[in-house]
Design a protein that fits this description.
10 helices; 3 strands
Length: about 210
């Protein structure tokens, strides 16, 4: 065990690895953005650790999250995926992965990339909220609500405000590492990031509590 100070939700070895290497790291690669958008939607009603454990299988059955290949999936393939115990076998979530891939590609074609569409929701730079405790973590924000409305209008599913905020945290549109966490300093570049304060809408737990 190491003695690094982390966000309180990073307890198990799996969650620590995800926290230390991925959570909050700015992502501008479309394949990775599609992966996180899919996994965040799959998480609805479940724990993030459950999804992380199934992630490798998701990558296999959904063609490494290449949206072009996912968008071309036929009904026979989808029915086979729905029998796979290695993923969340929720028909609506699986079907939404395919339809979201089609919508994702349309957005990318119109804007040049999906990244070019999504990053302007935070002014094209990471929004640093600098929460001091887990109680300061929001479950959504005005930016996440705006992103959710935009995605829903474009035909995306499982992209409500809470899911969108978790997505934004995961891919570094928002840096919600606690100020006491060693990753906060590593990911915060105050010369280029928008230090916004915690402006999100709070619930009983922060979105990062997973």
């Amino acid at each position: 065990m190491d003695d690094l100070q982390r966000c309180s939700w990073a307890r198990s070895d799996e969650m620590k690895r995800y926290h230390d290497l991925e959570w909050g790291v700015p992502v501008r690669d479309d394949r990775t953005l599609f992966e996180f958008l899919t996994l965040e939607g799959a998480q609805a009603g479940l724990s993030w650790e459950t999804i992380l454990r199934k992630r490798d299988r998701y990558r296999t059955v959904f063609n490494e999250f290449e949206p072009e290949r996912v968008a071309r999936m036929r009904s026979t393939t989808i029915e086979k995926i729905l029998t796979d115990p290695g993923i969340v076998r929720n028909r609506a979530k699986v079907l939404s992965t395919v339809s979201n891939a089609k919508a994702f590609l349309e957005v990318a074609r119109e804007h040049g990339s999906f990244a070019a569409f999504v990053w302007p929701f935070v002014g094209d730079r990471t929004q640093v909220n600098a929460p001091e405790t887990s109680a300061d973590l929001p479950v959504t924000s005005d930016e996440a609500i705006a992103l959710s409305k935009a995605l829903l209008s474009l035909g995306f599913k499982f992209v409500g405000p809470t899911i969108c905020y978790s997505f934004m945290q995961a891919v570094g549109l928002v840096n919600d590492h606690l100020t006491s966490c060693f990753r906060f300093a590593e990911l915060t570049d105050r010369s280029s990031a928008a230090v916004a304060g915690t402006r999100g809408r709070k619930g009983r737990r922060g979105a990062a509590a997973r």
